[in-house]
Design goal:
This protein is 36% helix and 17% strand. The strands form two sheets. Strands 1, 2, 3, 4, 5, 6, 7, 8, 9 and 10 form a ten-stranded mixed β-sheet that branches. Strands 11-12 form a two-stranded antiparallel ribbon. With 386 residues, the chain is of the alpha/beta class. The chain has eleven helices and twelve strands. The protein binds guanosine-5'-diphosphate (GDP) and magnesium ion (MG). This is Atlastin.
Length: 386
C-alpha cells in the first residue's frame, strides 16, 4: 500500500505498526548542539529504550564502546565488529530459534573472508574517507547480538560509537561528558589511539575517568539516600542462582575494562605475519613498559588514577590497513586490506567476543539486567545534560 511506501524505516514505532522491520542502523543516543546552544548535550532516551526493549527481560548486557580522536578508524573497526557478530552470534534479536553458531562455514572460509565489501553507510557504523568532520555524539547499534558466556547463559551485545572528541572543535567539557558517559555505560571501553600510547593519552584518560568517577559516586550517594526506592523489587532485576539479588562490592573499581587499541603500530619485532601470539606478547610488554613505575610524581599519579578507576587495563595493537584503505575514494573493497591487519583483526574480534572473557555490565561487581541498565544510563545522561 502507499502508506507502506512512505514509512520512515528509521521510525521504529511506525514500522512496528505496519509490521515492517526497520533497517538496522546506528541510532543516535546522545547529540550535541541545538539551534540555540551549540554546546548542549542531549540524551535521546526513546532511542535507547527501543534498543534495550529488544533484550529479553532479565538478560545481562555487554556494552562495548569505542572512544578516541576523530578519523582514527573507530567506526571502521565497529563495522567489522558487526560483520563478526553477524557471522558468529547465536541469534539476532529478531530471530526466535538458535542459529548455528558455526565458525567453520561450509565454504571453508573464515568469517572475514566472506565479507567482500565493508559498507560505508548501509548496515555499518558510518565510516568515511575525506576530511569532513562528522557530527558529535554517541551512537548505539539498533540490534543487540546474542553470544554465549562460559556459564551457559547468553548475553546481549550492544555496540556504541562516539564521535567528535579531541577534534579541536569540541570543548574539553563536552569531550569529558562523552568520554564519561560512554565509560559509565560500557562494560568494555576501547580507547583508540594513533601509533603509540602517549603521555597525554594517559593524562586525558586519567582526567576523564576521574570525571566519570565523580559522576558515578555522586549518583551512588543519591541512590543510597533514597534507600526505600533502591530496595524495591525492580522488574527483570538480577537474581542469582541462590535466588537472592547480588550484592554490590564497594571495594570494586567504578569501571570495568579499559583497553588501549593502538592503530598503525609500526614496531613489531615478530616477522612472521601469522605469529599473532608472538605479537600479543609484544603488546603486553609494551603496556608493561608504558605503565611501569615512574619516579616523577605527576606521571605516577596519572597511572594510579587510571588503575584505580578500572578493574582491568589492557592493550591491543593493529597495524596499518594499507594505503588503499586511506584513500578518499576507498569504498570498502576488503581484498585491498593488508593481510596482517586482517590477521590481527580476526584475533582481536575473537578476544573481544570470547565467551570466557565476556563480562556483562556490572556496577561494583553486580551484574545489571537490560531494564536496570536503562535506568542507570538515564540517570547519568541527565547529570551530563545539566
Ligand atoms: P573515526 O572518525 O575514528 O570513526 O574514523 P573512521 O572509521 O570513519 O575512518 C576514517 C578513515 O580512516 C577512513 O578513511 C578509513 O578507511 C581509515 N581507517 C580505518 N581504519 C584505519 C586504520 O587502522 N589506520 C588508518 N591509518 N586509517 C584507517
Ligand atoms: Mg566515526
Amino acid at each position: 500500500s502507499s502508506s507502506k511506501m512512505t514509512v520512515d524505516t528509521n521510525d521504529v514505532d511506525a514500522a512496528d505498526d505496519l509490521d515492517i522491520e526497520p533497517t538496522p542502523s546506528a541510532r543516535q543516543i546522545v547529540s550535541v548542539g541545538t539551534e540555540s546552544d551549540s554546546y548542549a548535550f542531549t540524551f535521546h532516551e526513546e532511542e535507547l529504550n527501543s534498543i534495550l526493549a529488544k533484550v529479553p527481560a532479565g538478560w545481562k548486557v555487554c556494552v562495548i564502546s569505542v572512544v578516541g580522536a576523530f578519523r582514527t578508524g573507530k567506526s571502521f573497526l565497529l563495522s567489522w565488529f558487526l560483520r563478526y557478530l553477524e557471522e558468529n552470534c547465536v541469534r539476532k534479536s529478531d530471530e526466535n530459534s538458535a542459529n548455528a553458531a558455526d565458525d567453520t562455514n561450509q565454504d571453508g572460509k573464515k568469517w572475514y573472508e566472506r565479507v567482500q565489501t565493508l559498507n560505508q553507510h548501509e548496515g555499518s557504523f558510518d565510516w568515511r574517507g575525506g576530511k569532513e568532520r562528522n557530527t558529535t555524539g554517541m551512537w548505539m547499534w539498533s540490534e543487540p547480538y546474542f553470544l554465549p558466556r562460559e556459564n551457559g547463559e547468553e548475553v546481549a551485545i550492544l555496540l556504541v560509537d562516539t564521535q567528535g572528541m579531541f577534534d579541536h572543535e569540541t570543548t574539553v567539557g563536552l569531550t569529558a561528558a562523552i568520554f564519561g558517559l560512554s565509560t559509565l555505560l560500557s562494560s568494555y571501553q576501547i580507547y583508540n589511539v594513533d601509533k603509540r600510547i602517549q603521555e597525554d593519552n594517559l593524562q586525558q584518560l586519567a582526567l576523564f575517568s576521574e570525571y566519570g568517577r565523580m559522576a558515578f559516586e555522586a549518583e551512588e550517594k543519591a541512590a543510597a539516600m533514597g534507600v526505600v526506592e533502591s530496595n524495591e523489587e525492580v522488574e527483570g532485576s538480577n537474581v542469582n542462582k541462590e535466588g537472592g539479588a547480588e550484592k554490590a562490592d564497594p571495594k570494586k573499581a567504578p569501571f570495568q575494562k579499559i583497553q588501549f587499541l593502538i592503530r598503525d603500530w609500526q614496531n613489531f619485532d615478530t616477522e612472521d605475519e601469522t605469529d599473532i601470539d608472538g605479537m600479543e606478547a609484544e603488546m603486553q610488554s609494551y603496556l608493561d613498559h608504558v605503565l611501569a613505575e615512574r619516579a616523577a610524581s605527576d606521571l605516577k599519579e596519572t597511572r594510579e588514577q587510571i588503575t584505580s578507576c578500572f578493574e582491568e587495563l589492557s592493550c591491543f595493537m593493529m597495524t596499518h590497513p594499507g594505503f588503499a584503505v586511506i584513500k578518499n575514494k576507498y569504498t570498502g573493497d576488503t581484498s585491498q586490506i593488508d593481510s596482517l591487519f586482517m590477521n590481527l583483526l580476526d584475533r582481536y574480534c575473537q578476544k573481544v567476543f570470547d565467551s570466557k572473557s565476556l563480562q556483562p555490565k556490572t556496577v561494583r561487581g553486580r551484574e545489571l539486567s537490560a531494564v536496570e541498565l536503562c535506568t542507570y544510563i538515564k540517570s547519568y545522561a541527565q547529570m551530563f545534560e545539566e
